[in-house]
Write a structure and sequence with these properties.
alpha/beta; two-stranded antiparallel ribbon; globular
């Protein structure tokens, strides 16, 4: 069964026993055994592995993993060092530059954000090669909704950063007034000029955290 290695194991233990997850598990066995699926199996839960429940300061919610070879590694919008940052990630870096004056990094690996308290969660955690949204409706959304609900229950404030329609549909799960919800268009080149550029979500996140006595996030990548 799933072993994440931190608080998420106990928080999600009952979830991993439910029928929908057992169905998902069988589906994934068949998919990984017969097709090219991303990310690699051992990377599926990296978002939870890198950012334990109590450490979450902000959540960035993506749709599903990149579906090109060598890109996805379990953190939404992130690609490993040596892989060209996709257009959406390039636009994220442009907005950080405009918002905070931080120059675009030499790579697109966002692991340091995750280690700094940013839960980089996709709503679906796996995908077929070359087929966006191909694992939609198999059970991942039920699990990731539960993760959002658990975070919503936290007393310590969290910033939920929702870009695009898929992510914004989750806003209804965030009912705790302690938290801040930031919403705008997706950073994709198809929509970034419809409100993503100029959203200033990175500085707004840190302003909110500092106001609540929480150490701000270092958006620079080492």
């Amino acid at each position: 069964m799933v072993h994440i290695g931190n608080e998420w194991d106990s928080l999600l233990a009952e979830e991993f026993k439910k029928d929908y997850y057992l169905h998902l598990r069988e589906f994934l066995k068949a998919e990984y055994g017969s097709r090219r699926i991303y990310p690699p199996m051992n990377d599926i839960f990296n978002a939870l592995r890198y950012t334990s429940y109590s450490d979450v300061k902000a959540v960035i919610l993506g749709q599903d993993p990149y579906h090109g070879a060598g890109q996805a590694h379990g953190l939404c919008f992130s690609v490993k060092k040596g892989v060209q940052p996709p257009p959406s990630l390039q636009n994220i870096f442009k907005e950080i530059k405009a918002d905070l004056g931080i120059d675009s990094p030499a790579h697109g690996e966002l692991t340091s954000w995750a280690q700094n308290g940013v839960l980089l969660l996709n709503t679906s955690l796996t995908v077929r090669e070359g087929q966006a949204n191909s694992h939609r409706g198999q059970g991942w959304e039920t699990l990731t909704d539960r993760i959002i609900e658990l975070l919503n229950q936290r007393e310590q404030p969290i910033v939920f950063i929702l870009w695009g329609g898929n992510a914004r549909s989750k806003a209804k799960l965030i009912t705790n007034k302690n938290h801040l919800v930031l919403q705008c268009a997706h950073p994709s080149p198809l929509s970034a000029y419809n409100g993503f550029f100029g959203c200033r979500h990175f500085s707004k996140t840190n302003e909110f955290l500092v106001t609540h006595g929480i150490k701000p996030i270092d958006w620079r990548l080492p």
